[in-house]
Amino acid sequence: MPAFWLARSLINDPVAYKRYTDQVPAIIAQYGGKVLARGGKFQVMEGPEKFKRFVVIEFPDFDSGVRCFQSDEYNEAARHRRENGAGEVETVILEAGEFTK
């Protein structure tokens, strides 16, 4: 069952944050991930308007998304946004689940 990596972020240092975003697509691909949305136009419908960037990535399954996020490669890349407050991010991995028509 597919799973989705949902992230919302606030970029405080665009130069340092770009060092992170330049590395991440290749890492995501290693785990079967496919970026569905990254940046772009958005409208907050409810809740705080703190975050200004949103990302949705589809993985073939929940475990693949978790393994990607917990991988050494990803955490090395994420170091660029975590150090010195270059970016604030909230990330959730969500299994697609069942839904009815």
Notable traits:
Alpha-Beta Plaits, globular, DUF1330, single chain, 101 residues, four-stranded antiparallel β-sheet, alpha+beta
Question: What is the strand and helix layout of this fold?
Answer:
Blueprint: E1 3-11, H1 14-30, E2 34-38, E3 53-59, H2 62-70, H3 72-82, E4 87-95
Antiparallel strand pairs: 1-3, 1-4, 2-3
Helix pairs in contact: 1-3
Could you describe the 3D structure shown?
Pfam families: DUF1330 (PF07045). Residues 2-93 form the DUF1330 domain. InterPro entries: Dimeric_a/b-barrel, DUF1330. This is DUF1330 domain-containing protein. The chain is of the alpha+beta class and 101 residues long. It has a single domain (19-90), classed as Alpha-Beta Plaits. It is 37% helix and 30% strand. The protein has three helices and four strands; from the N terminus they run βαββααβ. It has helices at residues 14-30, 62-70, 72-82; strands at 3-11, 34-38, 53-59, 87-95. The protein has a four-stranded antiparallel sheet. The model has no long low-confidence stretch (mean pLDDT 93).
Task: Summarize it.
This protein is of the alpha+beta class and 101 residues long. It is built from 3 helices and 4 strands, in the order βαββααβ. It is globular and about 45 Å long.
Number of domains: 1
Structure class: alpha+beta
User: If you compute it from the alpha carbons, what radius of gyration comes out, rounded to the nearest whole angstrom?
Assistant: 14 Å
CATH fold naming: Alpha-Beta Plaits
Helix content percent band: 25-40%
Number of helices: 3
> Which architecture name does CATH use?
2-Layer Sandwich
Low-confidence stretches: none
CATH class designation: Alpha Beta
In one word, what is the shape?
globular
- β-strand percent reads 25-35%
Distance between the termini: 17 Å
Give the averaged pLDDT, no decimals: 93
Domain DUF1330: 2-93
InterPro entries: Dimeric_a/b-barrel, DUF1330
Protein name: DUF1330 domain-containing protein
